[in-house]
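Please discuss these two lines.
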Amino acid sequence: MAKAAVLATPQERAIETGRQVALVAGASLLVALCARVTIPLMPLTLVPLTMQNFGVLLAGLLLGSRRGFAALMLYLIEGAAGLPVFNPTGPGGIAQLLGPTGGFLMIYPFVAFLAGYIFERGIKSFARAAIAGILAEISLFVGGLAWLYLFTHSLAKAAYLGLYWFLAAEVIKVMFAAAIASRWRRSRNETAAWQ
């Protein structure tokens, strides 16, 4: 397979590069669309319940570590540039990156990388995807809560604002992302077996 890549014509390489760019940009768009599904939880917390995390996990699981990381870096660049990709309850742009939800946003590329990295190794099963999603979510909340701690100067307050309200929803998101990713891999393997 590596030999075929070396022998590829410039046109084939250009097509493959275009495909990779489209996948990364598409994943960035997926996360932006997921961010539109938002349930504000004020006055309980300034952190809204969104589908963004689901999009981030799905990008990492489906694209793998490197492309997942690239997609979420692109997402952050788009948001920092003022494009309306972040959840609509925040101020948008740099202000949203530096606001209470900034820790969650800034760690997204690493969350996608971790989910993809774990899922890439070994059998692409639902269990492996779920474990990858859970570990990626733990890293997400570590980053998000550390950022909230800077605002509140209290771990208890940070956990109240950024953790307790979200646990049940995050478990559901992880399970759905794992189910989609494992089914996608299985269908790709079945398609390859038929060819």
User: Anything to note?
Assistant: The chain has one domain: 26-186.
